[in-house]
Amino acid sequence: MNIGVITIFPEMFESILKSGIVAKAINNNLVSITFSNPRDFAEDNRKTIDEKVFGGGPGMLMMAPPLEKSLKFLKKKLGDDSLVVYVSPQGKKFNNVLSKKVVNNNKIILICGRYEGIDERFIETFVDEEWSIGDYVLTGGELASMVIIDSVTRFIPGALGDKCSVEEDSFENGLLDYPHYTKPRVYNGKAVPDILLNGNHEKILDWRQKQSLGRTWLRRPELLENLALTDKQEKLLSEFIEERKNLMNE
Ligand code: 4FV
Predict the structure, then answer these.
(1) What highest taxon heads this organism's lineage (predicted)?
(2) Which of 175, 188, 227, 249 is buried most, with the most CB atoms less than 10 Å from its CB?
């Protein structure tokens, strides 16, 4: 997987290049990250890459020409068929589906805005997709790009130690994850649910499915709307709701 990043702050990415799953994937040649700094393509010796916004208003905007040269530099390295993504609050919400799509595309160039953003004509001319990591405003696209790189890397075969952990991810089956427990068996007077200690895998699977369904119903009911639950899932969810009702009435 080849990732290109256009940013005026490449040093911000040190954190994911030096530690964790992304660093391991890079060392195992599962992913490469190539940076391009628009300042290196600025026309003046002050390396100006931003200007005032036409029509007035606060703040500065990143100019199209240095971004274009920066993009062409990366496309020469990664290939013209790279998916060009601008990360901004105006984009569609990034999620696991988009994340997996990137892995299949195998080449992506992430454009990190700064200031008020970038010239719209660059977006119209060169950007394939605009993605947002959430409805809040960051000071730059770098953190959003690191979020995307981290998420995508998890889906690269071999990047995560235990192959099956991606399959059991949150959202993998459209549901929130079930609760997890580890040693000590009793913590703060709270014991691990017995069901998890009696080794009956069928019952453990049912309990986990019930918890995932119940949590999703409680915390993100909108996720259930676009899910066709099986009869068994419907039964498990109604059991959860019933048990919860009894719990609340105790
Ligand atoms: C953002 C987001 C985001 C907007 C102006 C960078 C900032 C500044 N990117 N998801 N939310 N970007 O806030 O992706 O240029």
Answers:
(1) Bacteria
(2) 175
- Strand 190-191 relative to strand 186-187: parallel, antiparallel, unpaired? antiparallel
Which atom of ligand 1 lies nearest, measured to the CA of 94? 10
CA of 41 to the centre of ligand 1 (A): 23
Give the integer Cα–Cα distance in Å for 134 and 137. 8
Is 185 one of the annotated active-site residues of the chain?
no
Asked if residue 169 belongs to a domain, the reply is: no
Residues 6+ apart with CB under 8 A from 35: 4, 5, 6, 7, 10, 13
**pLDDT, averaged across the chain:** 94
Nearest protein CA to atom 11 of ligand 1, as residue: 89
Task: Kindly report, residue by residue over 90-104, the tens digit of the pLDDT.
Answer: 999 999 989 998 888
Q: Which of 163, 194, 227 is the last residue of a domain?
A: 163
Q: Is 181 annotated as a binding residue?
A: no
Up-side HSE of residue 142: CA atoms within 13 Å toward CB?
17
Residue 163, SS3 per DSSP? coil
Domain extent, residue 214, equals 186-249
136 is in an annotated binding site: yes
H/E element holding 171?
A: none
In sequence order, which residues have a C-beta less than 8 Å from that of residue 219 and are 6 or more positions away?
176
Contact 31, 25 (CB under 8 A): yes
Q: Do 92 and 22 have their domain in common?
A: yes
Note whether residue 85 is domain-resident: yes
Tell me if residue 154 is catalytic: yes
Percent of the chain with pLDDT over 90: 88
Q: For residue 110, what pLDDT band results from cuts at 50, 70 and 90?
A: very high
